[in-house]
Write a structure and sequence with these properties.
seven-stranded parallel β-sheet; 49% helix; Rossmann fold; alpha/beta
């Protein structure tokens, strides 16, 4: 019998937070987690997009709540923490998917884009982990997955800030995992490093490089192994990592790019 999310992984009644849930990998992760029974809180600046995702999850008999959140705002995270404390009293799962990319190069003009990228991709992850860990430490358990990128693994002269920000995500993930493990807590913290994935961010790359490189096929040959990943393929790995099936995995940074970075 073919295994499915529903009969292989059960997250019934667990409270899961997913940032960047209005689109792309975040949306796919939220849908996969909700399909396994979790009470899933969808977080994004795009509140209209969140409502559509919540409606689709509800149509599949899942439980999702849409809440607007700017991941760069400490005030927004504090408000969310207070709401969660009153609504659920706990956080079992956090998936940090919110992220942006900018095209920039190291030089005197990089600082504006660097600050913008790091505020979302790094500060957002740190705010999320700090808030969720407050609940998880009290419970002594939990699971966090941060979405980084294979861009963290090597230099990229066209997207320097993006790659650097994702490298920082990996480092903070590993550091937090070590801290909770040494404290004797069953809190698992991992990062996934997707390769080129068919999202809105991929469209930015197409717009920037298709003409320069000689077409879509040439762009994909540079950025992907034959084809882009689907958001659902990344979500499957995230779902596994937040589940009890991955009970001995923590502090890992897992590439998912069909051998592109091998």
């Amino acid at each position: 019998m073919e295994k499915t999310h529903q009969n292989w992984i059960d997250l019934t009644n667990r409270v899961a937070l997913v940032t960047g849930a209005a689109s792309g990998i975040g949306r796919a992760a939220a849908e996969a987690i909700a399909a396994t029974g979790a009470k899933t809180v969808l977080l994004d600046r795009d509140e209209a997009g969140l409502r559509l995702v919540a409606q689709e999850i509800a149509a599949q008999n899942g439980h999702a709540i849409a809440r607007g959140l700017d991941v760069t705002s400490e005030h927004d995270w504090q408000d969310l923490s207070e709401w969660i404390d009153g609504e659920f009293g706990r956080v079992d799962i956090l998936v940090g998917c919110a992220g942006i990319a900018r095209f920039d190069r190291v030089g005197p003009d990089i600082f504006e884009s660097y600050r913008e990228v790091f505020s979302v991709n790094v500060d957002g992850i740190l705010h999320g982990m700090s808030m969720a860990l407050g609940f998880m430490r009290k419970a002594g358990k939990g699971a966090i997955v941060n979405v980084a990128s294979t861009a963290a693994l090597k230099g990229n002269p066209a997207m320097a800030s993006y790659g650097a920000s994702k490298a920082a995500v990996v480092h903070f993930t590993r550091s937090a995992a070590l801290e909770t493990n040494r404290a004797g807590l069953d809190i698992r913290i991992n990062a996934v490093l997707p390769g080129f994935t068919e999202t809105g961010m991929a469209q930015q790359v197409y717009d920037q490089f298709d003409e320069k490189l000689g077409g879509r096929e040439a762009t994909l040959s540079v950025f992907a192994s034959g084809r882009p990943a689907l958001p659902s393929e990344i979500a499957d790995l995230i779902l596994y990592l937040v589940s009890d099936r991955a009970s001995f995995i923590s502090g890992s940074a897992i590439n998912i790019d069909r051998a592109q970075s091998a």
